[in-house]
Design a protein that fits this description.
Blueprint lengths: L2 E2 L2 E2 L13 H13 L4 E3 L7 H9 L4 E6 L4 H15 L2 E6 L5 H13 L3 E7 L6 H9 L5 E5 L11 H8 L2 E5 L14 H7 L4 H10 L6 E2 L7 H7 L9 H11 L1
Parallel strand pairs: 3-4, 4-5, 5-6, 6-7, 7-8, 8-9
Antiparallel strand pairs: 1-2
Helix pairs in contact: 1-2, 1-9, 5-6
The protein binds NADP nicotinamide-adenine-dinucleotide phosphate.
Length: 251
């Protein structure tokens, strides 16, 4: 799989897939690792997913998780538990910008001490993108996580150009529009034109064909889908015409 600044370009999300189901997490994570996936995204918001992900990884892979807490005390407690589950957090993100100025100070100390690799910020809602841009302009973040798929392209206006200008690495959440975009059927002839086997791969490649994107993190509860998704991380990347075809098929 191609590697960019955060490692292999297809990771694994964990929102609403295995939650606290440790056996299912083990199955999905084993398959993902075997397919070359190395970055695993989670959050204290994901109902037990951090604990089951940590047990399944057993020290393998790189973890991107989040601090989602209104107070520094609670944020530090979330981090303490993450260290227990994962050993190390490679990418620590402030979830939905919650108390980001307060949390950032102590997180920067952790990064400076080498205990956290990179610091990031995330938001799923376009109404928060101006605030997310302001946070990036402080120059204190290494990564940004944002939604990007043919139905959600608002980030093309400001966030993607800004991330490129600042040298901030981009993680794409919802590359399949939370599954909504993969439910349609697409003609095999169109997939052949795109050089992919499945429509899910076309959507993942659509995001990765923008060179400002470092990582897509599709989530799945089906171990068998991890290899299908990981295969989308192999070049060649789409031409502008192929990207336009995906947009047409998704319309
Ligand atoms: N949604 C948000 O607002 C949000 C916010 C912050 C962060 N994130 C992070 O971003 C990650 C990705 O976003 P997401 O989980 O919301 O949405 P997503 O990855 O766009 O879509 C996940 C859905 O796609 C389905 N799927 C995955 N691979 C497939 C394939 N090859 N073929 C057909 N269906 C497939 C999954 O169903 P099956 O389980 O049946 O495979 C699941 O329902 C999250 O897991 C989380 O780590 C999300």
């Amino acid at each position: 799989m191609e590697e960019r600044r955060l490692g292999p370009v297809v990771g694994l999300g964990t929102w609403q897939t295995f939650g606290g189901d440790a056996a299912l997490a083990r199955e999905v994570v084993e398959a993902a690792l075997a397919a070359g996936v190395d970055v695993f995204d989670s959050s204290p918001m994901y109902r037990g997913a951090e604990a089951s992900l940590g047990a399944a990884l057993a020290g393998r892979g790189r973890v991107a998780t989040k601090i989602w807490a209104p107070s520094v005390e609670e944020g530090r407690e979330q981090y303490r538990r993450q260290v227990e589950w994962f050993g190390r957090v490679e990418i620590e993100q402030i979830h939905n910008l919650v108390a980001w100025q307060e949390q950032l100070e102590w997180l920067e100390e952790e990064r400076a001490a080498g205990r956290i690799g990179r610091l990031g910020v995330t938001h799923y809602a376009s109404g928060a993108f101006d605030a997310m841009a302001d946070a990036l302009r402080t120059g204190r973040f290494d990564t940004v996580q944002l939604p990007y798929n043919p139905h959600e392209r608002e980030v093309e206006e400001e966030l993607l150009p800004l991330a490129a200008e600042l040298g901030v690495a981009v993680i794409v959440m919802r590359p399949l529009a939370e599954g909504a975009l993969v439910r349609r059927s697409v003609e095999p002839a169109a997939l052949r034109e795109l050089g992919v086997e499945t429509w899910a791969q076309a959507l993942l490649k659509w995001a990765l064909s923008d060179e400002r994107v470092d990582l897509v993190i599709p989530a799945t509860s089906k171990a068998g889908r991890t290899a299908e998704n990981a295969a989308a991380g192999e070049p060649p990347w789409f031409t502008p015409e192929q990207r336009a075809l995906v947009e047409e098929l998704a319309a």
